[in-house]
Design a protein that fits this description.
236 residues, alpha/beta, Nitrilase/N-carbamoyl-D-aminoacid amidohydrolase, six-stranded mixed sheet, 12 strands, 28% helix, globular
C-alpha cells in the first residue's frame, strides 16, 4: 500500500490552501492513500469563522470529482444538522464513504466555545477494500478509552494540528498506539511554525518514518506485517 502524508502549512488564504492541496493530490496520483492535516484548508480561523464554515461546500465541490481510486482523508469545519463540527472525511471513488466528528475538543484552544462535540459511539472501526481502519482527531489521541474502541485495526489514522510545545507527547503516544495495537499508525500533522510537525508512518513493531522538513512523507507499507507481528506476540 503506497502512502502519502501531506505535512503542510495552513495560510490565511483558504483558496490558496485548496489549490496547494489539489496540486499535491495530483502529484501523488500513484498513492493509494493520502492524508492531510487537521482543518488544513482553513485552520482554526475564529475571527472569520462563518467564512471558514462556508468553505466546506466549495472544497467538497473540488475534491469529490478529483478523488477516484485513491483514499483521501482530511478534516474540515462545517455545519451539520444545526451543529458546528470538526469533521473527519474519507473520500474514495468520488464519494464520501465515512465521516467522524471530533468528540474530545481541545479546551486550551477554545474549541469547546466554537464547536459541538461529536458522539462517543460514532468513533468506530470501518473497513475499506479489505483493510480495517480506525481514526482519532488530534487531541483525542490522549484518551485511553478511545484506544479501546479501535482495537484490532490494521491502520490507525491521526489527522492533527498538534502544538510544538507538546511535540514529544505526540511522538510517544502515536508510537505507543502502534506497538500496543500492533498496527500501522499514520500521523499527519500541521507544519505551521507553532505546530509540532512529527508526521509519521509508524510500523506495528514500532519503527518510525518521519521527516519534519518534508512536505510529503511517503512509503510503501506491507499489511502482512500486521499479521506477522500479531503472530509473534499474541496479545491474549
Amino acid at each position: 500500500m503506497n502512502l502519502a502524508l501531506l505535512q503542510l502549512k495552513t495560510t490565511s488564504n483558504y483558496q490558496k490552501n485548496l489549490d496547494t492541496l489539489v496540486e499535491h493530490i495530483k502529484a501523488n496520483q500513484d498513492k493509494d492513500l493520502i492524508i492531510a492535516p487537521e482543518v488544513y484548508l482553513t485552520g482554526y480561523d475564529y475571527e472569520n469563522f462563518d467564512a471558514s464554515l462556508d468553505f466546506y461546500e466549495k472544497a467538497m465541490d473540488v475534491l469529490l470529482p478529483l478523488i477516484s481510486t485513491q483514499i483521501f482523508v482530511f478534516t474540515i469545519v462545517r455545519r451539520e444538522g444545526g451543529e458546528v463540527v470538526n469533521q473527519a472525511v474519507v473520500i474514495h471513488n468520488h464519494e464520501v464513504l465515512y465521516t467522524q466528528n471530533k468528540y474530545k475538543l481541545f479546551h486550551v484552544g477554545d474549541e469547546d466555545k466554537y464547536f459541538d462535540a461529536g458522539k462517543r459511539d460514532t468513533i468506530e472501526k470501518f473497513t475499506l477494500n479489505g483493510v480495517t481502519y480506525g481514526m482519532l482527531i488530534c487531541f483525542e489521541l490522549r484518551f485511553k478509552e478511545l484506544w479501546k474502541a479501535l482495537e484490532g485495526v490494521d491502520i490507525f489514522l491521526l489527522p492533527a494540528m498538534w502544538g510544538e510545545p507538546r511535540k514529544n507527547h505526540l511522538e510517544v503516544l502515536s508510537q505507543a498506539f502502534a506497538i500496543m495495537n500492533q498496527c500501522y499508525v499514520l500521523v499527519c500533522n500541521s507544519a505551521n511554525d507553532d505546530m509540532a510537525s512529527s508526521s509519521a508512518i509508524i510500523h506495528p513493531w514500532g519503527e518510525v518514518t518521519m521527516d519534519d522538513e518534508a512536505e510529503v512523507i511517503s512509503e510503501i507499507i506491507d499489511l502482512r506485517e500486521v499479521k506477522k507481528t500479531r503472530r509473534l506476540i499474541p496479545m491474549r
